[in-house]
Design brief:
Radius of gyration: 20 Å
Strand content: 25-35%
Shape: globular
Order of helices and strands: EEEEHEEHHHHEEHEHEHEE
Distance between the termini: 26 Å
Number of strands: 12
């Protein structure tokens, strides 16, 4: 596995005083994903869990439907670990690279889609599992604890303050997998790829917690894995909310302290009866007009928001 962090010299300015010191940064390097020896995609990622990243990506794209479609997945050792080849079993179709450019960045998992029509085709594949029929319920008190649990598991973030995370929690609240990456969608692919190898997909009754904002591609990846609840410490986009509503997914944003916004799938939110000893709280989750800005750089104690 390549290095997750590295150090660079930086000028530090504090209260008018200037000094130079080394700073720890998150590593970002390209990973070329090959299928049957042929290049298919290049993504910018943080090294580590590359096999799971490739498997999760191939699964989200609908290229593989289970781990049984994979014969081998390994790095090409002469490429400095930045090329990974996945050999598929005979009969698994590989998409024509001419019809879709699969070069993506560390920010967006659907950036390689060449047209809106192709994007809609990806959306149609996301209904492989009947998420709307998932009868699991969501306890807001348990959900409010997940950002802290996710943050506690982020070793690279603790050292750099500049990496995203995705965490998967089981129906009983157990923490099953946490992965970090410079790209939000990569972190999700790594989590899904891990579960795919274990034969645990679909992830019925599970909660996916992410450290940043939620775009369309994050909802799509969660839906492909059959995850009924997607939560984030920041805001979703309009397309993310619309897709979650269409699929019957519960989408929760601004999970901070005891507040949150439930954008879709509110029927899964369990509401314990209020105590008769105290008046009900008047605190509300932040509205779209008053939500805190996500454009500022994260402090050492917060999640990255971009």
């Amino acid at each position: 596995m390549g290095r997750v962090t590295d150090r660079r010299r930086v000028q530090r300015i504090h209260e008018g005083e200037r000094s130079f010191r080394p700073d720890t940064l998150i590593v970002e390097e390209p990973l070329e994903i090959q299928v049957n020896g042929e290049p298919l995609s290049v993504t910018m990622r943080t090294p580590g869990d590359d096999v799971d990243l490739a498997l999760g990506w191939l699964y989200a794209e609908g290229i593989i439907t289970s781990y049984e479609d994979v014969v081998t997945a390994k790095h090409c050792m002469d490429s400095d670990l930045n090329v990974l080849d996945v050999t598929l079993r005979a009969g698994v179709a590989v998409p024509d690279r001419a019809g879709r450019g699969f070069t993506v960045s560390g920010a967006c998992g659907t950036c390689g889609t060449s047209s809106l029509e192709a994007l809609r085709e990806v959306t149609a594949k996301a209904v492989r599992w009947p998420i709307r029929e998932d009868a699991s319920t969501l306890d807001p008190a348990e959900l409010s604890a997940l950002p802290g649990r996710l943050r506690a598991a982020q070793k690279a973030f603790a050292r750099t303050g500049g990496v995203h995370a995705a965490g998967l929690f089981g129906p009983g609240g157990e923490q099953l997998a946490v992965r970090e990456d410079v790209g939000r969608h990569n972190a999700v692919d790594k989590v899904v790829g891990d579960r795919l190898r274990l034969g645990a997909v679909p992830l019925t009754g599970h909660v996916l917690m992410v450290s940043g904002r939620v775009g369309y591609e994050i909802v799509q990846k969660a839906a492909m894995a059959g995850i009924p609840v997607l939560a984030a410490v920041s805001a979703p986009s309009t397309l993310a909310v619309d897709l979650a509503a269409e699929l019957g997914m519960t989408l929760v944003g601004f999970v901070r302290g005891d507040s949150m916004n439930v954008y879709t799938g509110t029927s899964r939110t369990s509401s314990p009866a209020p105590s008769t000893d105290t008046a009900p709280s008047t605190d509300t989750a932040p509205s779209a007009d008053t939500a805190p800005s996500t454009d500022t750089a994260p402090s050492a104690g917060t999640f990255p928001s971009a």
